[in-house]
Design a protein that fits this description.
The structure holds 2 protein chains of 2 kinds. In chain A, 64% of the residues lie in helices and 11% in strands. By secondary structure, chain A is mainly alpha-helical. Chain A has a single domain, classed as Orthogonal Bundle (Arc Repressor Mutant, subunit A). The chains are: A mainly alpha, B alpha+beta.
């Protein structure tokens, strides 16, 4: 586990932040004003959560004129998946494949 | 870019322990593009107005043949709009391997490569996908289960792995090797 992975897991371990990511998944490139609508918290609260998401690399911001737009960046989740979670799911998959082989009466 | 086009824009960012030059080469040199992601050969004429062409890898040809899908030789084409090695590449991008995406025409793709501290380089990919909802699904990785690969997140994860470890990820989805 690297520090980067740590930041991703910590950022994801909060329902408000997951909800912000879900909203960006539905429609990307939103302003702070759009994101705070219906979140039931202050602008500063939303900004704090967005900053944690940005630090983890899960949100990338870009300027368009006077506006700052927020984009969902799925790469850190992909990195966690590829480097860390895959390790465990692969073992399960190969165990299932062995089981299937055995149940079907095959011999190596 | 207006706010309207930005809602269809996809932005990807990855930090890679490599020089900007190494990343630029990995994006624009065919001997590198064949080693990660979709493993297609990319040919760039690196000047404004120059051609961009990505040709199907052997693995992709085999996969398409096995699945009974016709595959054109050139799978993506486009035109170079700006080339400032090793920091900025802007091009058009039209995917030809899926008819519904091909019909959507050209989109705009920008690579931004910026040094940060500690020998780490920030690579940002901005894909403007206005009027290209089918291509947006493919490059967004939402058709991975259908065998379309994992899009930009997958490509960039693999690129990071290749540049940092010398090895691409060991995919088991049959697209490669």
């Amino acid at each position: 586990m690297t520090d980067d992975d740590d930041r991703v897991f910590k950022a994801l371990a909060d329902p408000t932040r997951r909800s912000l990511l879900d909203r960006l998944f539905e429609r990307d490139g939103r302003t702070l004003t759009e994101l705070e609508a219906g979140m039931g918290m202050t602008r500063f609260g939303v900004m704090k959560h967005l900053r944690i998401l940005e630090d983890a690399g899960l949100v990338v911001t870009r300027r368009a004129g006077r506006e700052k737009l927020h984009f969902l960046n799925p790469v850190p989740i992909r990195l966690v998946h590829d480097r860390w979670i895959d390790k465990y799911t692969e073992r399960q998959v190969s165990a299932l494949a062995d089981l299937k082989h055995e149940l079907e009466g095959g011999s190596a | 870019m207006t706010t309207d086009t930005l809602t269809t824009t996809q932005v990807y960012r990855v930090y890679i322990k490599a020089t900007p030059e190494a990343i630029w080469t990995a994006i624009t040199d065919p001997s590198w593009t064949e080693r990660y992601g979709y493993t297609n050969r990319a040919d760039y004429e690196l000047r404004p107005g120059g051609a961009y062409r990505s040709t199907a890898s052997e693995a992709m040809k085999r996969g398409a043949e096995a699945a009974g899908i016709p595959l054109p030789e050139v799978v993506v084409d486009g035109e170079v709009l700006e080339a400032h090695p090793p920091h900025r590449l802007v091009q058009t991008f039209r995917m030809l391997m899926a008819p519904e995406a091909a019909a959507e025409g050209f989109t705009r793709l920008t690579y931004e490569i910026a040094e940060t501290k500690g020998g780490v380089t920030k690579l940002t990919v901005i894909h403007e996908l206005e009027g290209a909802p089918n291509l947006a699904l493919i490059v967004g990785g939402q058709q991975e289960e259908l065998g379309a690969g994992g899009g930009w997140a997958w490509v960039l994860s693999d690129l990071k792995s290749l540049l940092e470890t010398g090895q691409p990820m060991d995919w088991d989805d049959g697209l490669k090797r």
